Amino acid sequence: SNGTFENYVIYYDGVGGVFSKLQIVPNYSQTSFELIGNYAGTVSFYMTSTADGGVSKSLPSDTVSPIILNLFADGNKIEIQWSELGLPSADSTYQLFRQVDSGPWVSIGSSEYNERSFSDEIERCEAYIRYRVEISGVGGCVSRSNAASIFVIDETPPEQCNLICASVDTATGFVDLAWESTVSVDGFGYLITYFADDIGVDTSFGKNNLTYQYSQSGINAQLKPETLSVAPFDSCFDTIVMWYNQAADSLRFSTIYVDSVGFDRCAGKIGLQWNMPTDGFPVGLEEVDEYRVYRRENNGGSDFRGFVSGADSVFVDSGLVKGASYEYVVTAFNKALAKEAMSNVFRFKVKPPDAPDFLYAAAIKNNHETDLNAIAVYTDTTSETTKYVLERALSAFDDYQIVNQTTKINRPEFDMVDLTGKAVQTDYHYRIVAYDYCDAPIYKSESAKSIWINGYKRERDYINDMSWTEYAGYEHANSLVENYQLVRLTNESQRDTIRVQRLFQEFTDTIFELEYIGGEVCYYVEAIEQAENAFGLSKVSRSNKFCVNYEPRIFVPNAFTPDGDGINDRFLPDVNFVDVDGYKLSIYDRAGNLVHIATDPTEGWGGVNQSSGVYAFFLQMNNSRGEAVNFTGKVVLLR
After folding, report:
1. Reduced to 3 states, what is the DSSP secondary structure of residue 512?
2. What is the DSSP string of 20-34?
3. Which residues of 85-113 are buried (b: 16+ CB within 10 A; e: fewer)?
4. CB-CB contact of 635 with 615 (8 Å)
5. Domain 163-254: which topology?
6. Are domains 69-153 and 354-550 of this chain identical in fold?
7. How many beta carbons lie within 10 A of that of residue 517, not counting itself?
8. Strand 628-637 and strand 559-560: pairing?
9. Which of 54, 158, 226, 277 is most exposed, with minimal Cβ within 10 Å?
10. Residue 496 and residue 44: Cα distance in Å, rounded?
């Protein structure tokens, strides 16, 4: 230290204990030197400095050795060991670096100063790997090891992973899979296998890519349960041999497939059933706590319908409406995972009732003997109708009441009679309702309204005033009332149409000049339909019968002259408004002998074979109420 610096001298021992001079460095300010050669073995170095022309020599430095790496491989697991440096370090740890093939050097970890070993695992099944170790010494000098290399070949496939979920994409029928990551670090991706007529295989790259939608090989979980498996592979595509045939837990998953086990149309209930897991072959999820059932009606929102335990495979739903469309999805639910696996979409349309194509109240006719209305029905005979019900209401706004019903009649036209309504009291609204085998209404006709005629008599003037309500119903067959015919009944069988009109529903009838009519005069109205309606029909509807009663009107002459001059030749009482069936005229001579009987009010007595004189008569008849009306008197026959 007191002399003049001469040089630095570096000594080397590569044979074990004998050091020899290796290098002289004459530059006092130089602090490092690169040795060219192969010094990667078990070698040691130290250095001294000389001064005063080599006379003075310093004490030797610390003896140091380079860090030498040794590598040991077991498959893709590498054990790294290195030699002791021999110098105290400013750091407490060794830093390790790795290069894969010709890629960049990457820090992979550290090791404590006194350990000098490190374990590494390669995520490749086959690779050329290089390692080095570095440590920082006093003064900032970095000691670096040799770059040791090794070629790794790992033929052990990654450890199997478990499927978690196989869920159906309800829009496409594809299958969404989720699985656990393999614990093997060399996992490079996953093989997805689809089991159908031919096994289909697809790949998902990336150890941490743990979901996949399988859409290959014509898969469609809407049509049947689909079975798939997942297995990890390494970068050499090594995987477990025949893994897809093993029955270990969760290796093969089937999707949930829902179908119907029965439908009660009348009760509006449907039974749903789905496939259940077997040992080693889960369905939907690895473990199922419960199955949840969802429903959509007519493409509306999803409605939660209920759940069953994970041990059940049947669910009964109710409230289905005829003619509505439904979609059902069943999900397997795991509470711990808060995960659901969806089934296929089971679509079901409740068959609408095969209702009649048409059901028409074609006409309403009153039976004048019973005063009951008969409704003419015209309908389609090919429907599911099992019975027809006749309903009646007092107005279009009142509730309809059932008044008659009948089983299905296999002909298009038939009558239904209102068994309780009295047509003489008012008009009625009627409709016919068709029922199916569930005893549910499937079709209602439009309503039709009967005609009601009413009026009063002006007896002294022999005038009857009448009015009637309009008929309604023809318009439902694109038709109208052509006209109303007012019919008058006398002597029970005498029928006269006395008025035809369309716009007005009233009429005044004078009957004074009518001869030989009974004591009761009745009227009814017929609504005549236009020539042909939409069904090819032309109907007549008939009102109730309205009747008025008149007391008998009688005039008896007191003489007659049967001389053949055409004037007053017969004895003929003038009678009207009587029951002609009860009419009887008896003639007696002075001796009380019956000389003539007439039972026809138009016959009288012509005095045949009788001489002039006074005769007695006895006139018998009944009024409109059936009460006997008798007259006696004398008549003079003049010749």
Report:
1. coil
2. EEEEEE--TT----P
3. bebeeeeeebbbbbbbeeeeeeeeebbee
4. yes
5. Immunoglobulin-like (2.60.40)
6. yes
7. 19
8. parallel
9. 54
10. 149
Q: HEC states along 204-255?
A: EECCCCCEEEECCCCCCCCCCCCEEEEEEECCCCCCCCCHHHCCCCCCEEEC
Are 232 and 162 in contact, with CB atoms under 8 Å apart?
no
Sort 587 into a burial class: Cβ within 10 Å, 0-12 / 13-18 / 19+: buried
Residue 35, pLDDT score: 82
Q: Are 234 and 263 in contact (CB under 8 A)?
A: no
Q: Give this prediction's pTM.
A: 0.63
Q: Cα–Cα distance between 377 and 362 in angstroms, integer? A: 6
- List Cα–Cα distances, 525 to 207, 373, 621, in angstroms: 94, 14, 31
Q: CA separation (Å) from 471 to 17, 362, 391, 394?
A: 137, 11, 17, 14
**Rounded CA gap, 194 and 422, in Å?**
77
Q: Name the nearest CA neighbour of 539 among 495, 497, 489, 479.
A: 479
In the Cβ-directed half-sphere of 286, how many Cα atoms lie within 13 Å? 16
What is d(CA 316, CA 328) in angstroms, rounded to the nearest whole number? 12
> What topology is assigned to 258-349 in CATH?
Immunoglobulin-like (2.60.40)
Find the helix or strand (DSSP H, E) in which 97 lies.
Answer: strand 93-100
Q: Give the CATH number of domain 354-550.
A: 2.60.40.10
pLDDT at residue 52, as a whole number: 82
Chain-centroid distance of CA 440 in Å reads 20
Fold classification of 553-637 (topology level)? Immunoglobulin-like (2.60.40)
Residue numbers of the chain with a pLDDT score lower than 70: 1-3, 15-16, 40-41, 88-90, 139, 197-198, 241-250, 492
* Tokens of residue 122, six digits: 């390669």
Q: Please report the pLDDT score of residue 81 as a whole number.
A: 95
Fold of 69-153: Immunoglobulin-like (2.60.40)
In whole angstroms, what is the distance from residue 440 CA to residue 322 CA?
10
- Measure the CA–CA gap between 599 and 385, rounded to whole angstroms: 57
- CA-nearest of 448, 445, 447 to 435 is 445
User: Which is nearest to 185 in space by CA: 108, 123, 120?
Assistant: 123
Enumerate the domain spans of the chain: 5-57, 69-153, 163-254, 258-349, 354-550, 553-637
The pLDDT assigned to 241 comes to 55
CB 243, CB 213: distance < 8 Å:
no
Which residues lie below 8 Å from residue 20, measured CB to CB, with a gap of 6+? 11, 12, 13
Whether residue 20 contacts residue 11, with contact meaning beta carbons closer than 8 Å, is answered with yes
Identify the three-state secondary structure at position 474.
helix
The residue ranges of DSSP E strands in 275-369, in sequence order, are: 290-297, 302-309, 314-317, 325-334, 339-342, 346-349, 359-367
Burial of 542 (0-12, 13-18, 19+ CB in 10 A): buried
Residue that has been written with the tokens 């009760």 in this structure: 267
Q: Do 582 and 621 meet the contact criterion of CB atoms below 8 Å apart?
A: yes
